[in-house]
Design a protein that fits this description.
It contains five helices and 15 strands. The protein has helices at about 1-20, 25-30, 135-140, 145-150, 215-220; strands spanning about 35-45, 45-55, 60-70, 90-95, 105-110, 125-130, 165, 180, 195-200, 205-215, 225, 240, 245-250, 255-260, 265.
Length: about 260
């Protein structure tokens, strides 16, 4: 038993060390361009790491995650047992400290093997890429049950909502809050779901940005930059993304999902 645990630890450490690894020269060149690595974790049969590209110490260009092609293999095929409110498996990472000015306080890549509600729309295997603007310790207190469920569904004034978005019923999830969907998105208008952008809230405040991407769409090896519908007004002064990226790199055999086009509001 001890030898098996040791083997698992060695394999895990090797995989994490290899993900996104660069020699010292390459790393220096990337830092000179404002590119910084965050954290790495296992995903499927591969790995995923967080990163940020900064124009300066206080101005972001883009933030995101990059994962190996093999991360799409060996994924769970069933929902998490014993937790009906949790549709998927969460993989947490932080951004590098050089990106503190962005205001993203944690990233979670959620794999949903059976998708989630609503049926006929998002009930297909897909990933949710959550970019949280609140501390992890704060969102870990979200239970989405009882009196906390009422906090999840506390309304946000229409003046602070994005156009065409609605609060999705039954979209409360522990450690997340609730989800707002774009009713003009193709998947709500007779077309298949490929990727979409979700806003998330809790207790009347926006707390995450979320590109959501169909696994089958990733397997087409896309290269797209898509607009984000902006909030009409913001609840706090901060950097806000205006676009998101879903991209495959043939040379490196990697996928990237990122927020970009940041503006200060």
């Amino acid at each position: 038993m001890h030898s098996m645990k040791l083997l698992v630890a060695i394999v895990t450490a090797a995989a994490l060390a290899g993900a996104g690894s660069l020699n010292a020269c390459e790393n220096c060149k990337l830092k000179a361009k404002g590119f910084y690595f965050g954290e790495t974790t296992l995903l499927g049969n591969g790995t995923v790491y967080s990163w940020a590209r900064m124009a300066s110490k206080t101005k972001p260009i883009s933030v995101g995650v990059t994962f190996t092609e093999t991360a799409l293999e060996g994924l769970q095929t069933e929902r998490p047992p014993n937790n009906p409110l949790m549709p998927g498996y969460e993989h947490r990472m932080n951004l590098p400290k050089e990106a503190d000015a962005v205001g993203i306080q944690g990233i979670a890549v959620d794999w949903n093997p059976k998708g989630h509600i609503p049926p006929g729309v998002y009930d297909v295997p897909h990933f949710d890429f959550h970019f949280y603007t609140v501390p992890t310790a704060q969102r870990d207190k979200i239970t989405a049950v009882g009196t906390d469920k009422k906090k999840c569904f506390k309304p946000i004034a229409k003046a602070y909502q994005p156009d065409h978005y609605m609060l999705a019923p039954q979209s409360e999830v522990p450690t997340m809050g609730v989800h707002w969907v774009d009713v003009t998105a193709p998947e709500f208008n007779g077309k298949p779901f490929t990727s979409t952008f979700i806003y998330g809230s809790y207790n009347g405040k926006w707390i995450f940005f979320e590109p959501m991407v169909n696994k089958s769409f990733l397997e087409t090896k896309p290269n797209v930059v898509l607009p984000i519908v902006p909030l009409k007004k913001v609840q706090k002064h901060a950097w806000y993304p205006t676009k998101y990226v879903v991209r495959y790199n043939e040379e490196r055999k990697e996928y990237t999902v990122a927020l970009t086009g940041f503006v200060y509001r």
